[in-house]
Amino acid sequence: MIDSQTIAANLATIREEITRAAQDSERDPTGIALVAVSKTIPAEGIRPAIAAGQRRFGENYVQEAKTKWPFLREEAEGIELHLIGPLQSNKARDAVELFDVIHTLDRTSLAASLSKEIQRSGRHPTLLVQVNTGEEPQKGGVAPGAVDAFLAECRETHGLTVSGLMCIPPAEDPPSAHFGLLAAIARRHALPILSMGMSADYPAAIQMGATHVRVGSAIFGARQPKG
Ligand SMILES: *Cc1c(COP(=O)(O)O)cnc(C)c1O
């Protein structure tokens, strides 16, 4: 695990890069939220980021987040937790309880489960629809051609407010075309949030309109393989 000074320095560098990319495209840097992706990072690796002022964190797994965040949240004010990994319908209750923003709404059954848990709990996490811009079979997300109908269904059948879109471009493609496609769909529906860009490509995503960039390894170092 990397040391706390390195984590603080990485965060400072990324904040500078975000400001530079925003200025390059004549955007207000305060309109771009950095989500620090802390999947697989234990609590003692996350604390230095909190100490350096980072408050928005992204996790991929509900179960892992449940073991880390309830107590980390008690240690600092203003933590905002983002679910950026695939969500199973049977974890919807935990997800609504724990997360402030869910980036991975991508199918009818999940919309139904989230709707039920939101009504039951009275908690209203911000919801983003994941779009599978590369139409990769192994990846979650709604196909670009199905987004219009899915958004209508979320609203009309399930009473959900969707605030934005998220994508993970195919690893082998230049990302900008995917970011541009996501931005165009969001514009068409007047959705304010665009979650796109990771360690390797967040400046490009900002130039294409990202409001949320999800950065993990550039802050916390390379992840250990899961096993
Ligand atoms: C892991 C992950 C990230 C962060 O990736 P890095 O390349 O480490 O910045 C961002 N978004 C999603 C959906 C992820 O799963």
Give a verbal description of the structure.
The protein is an alpha/beta fold. It has one domain (4-220): Alanine racemase (TIM Barrel, Alpha-Beta Barrel), CATH 3.20.20. Helices cover 43% and strands 15% of the residues. It is built from nine helices and eight strands. The chain has helices at 4-24, 43-51, 62-75, 92-98, 108-121, 147-156, 176-188, 202-207, 217-220, and strands at residues 33-37, 56-59, 80-83, 101-105, 126-130, 162-166, 193-195, 212-215. Strands 7-6-5-4-3-2-1-8 form an eight-stranded parallel beta sheet. Helix 7 (176-188) links the parallel strand 6 (162-166) and strand 7. Helix 1 (4-24) packs across helix 2 and helix 4 packs across helix 5 (108-121). The longest helix has 21 residues, at 4-24. The protein binds pyridoxal-5'-phosphate. Residues 3-223 form the Alanine racemase N-terminal domain. Pyridoxal 5'-phosphate (PLP)-binding protein, which is involved in PLP homeostasis.
Secondary structure elements and pairings:
Elements: H1 4-24, E1 33-37, H2 43-51, E2 56-59, H3 62-75, E3 80-83, H4 92-98, E4 101-105, H5 108-121, E5 126-130, H6 147-156, E6 162-166, H7 176-188, E7 193-195, H8 202-207, E8 212-215, H9 217-220
Parallel strand pairs: 1-2, 1-8, 2-3, 3-4, 4-5, 5-6, 6-7
Helix pairs in contact: 1-2, 4-5
Bound molecules: pyridoxal-5'-phosphate (PLP).
Organism: Methylobacterium frigidaeris
Modified residues (N6-(pyridoxal phosphate)lysine): 39
GO molecular function: pyridoxal phosphate binding
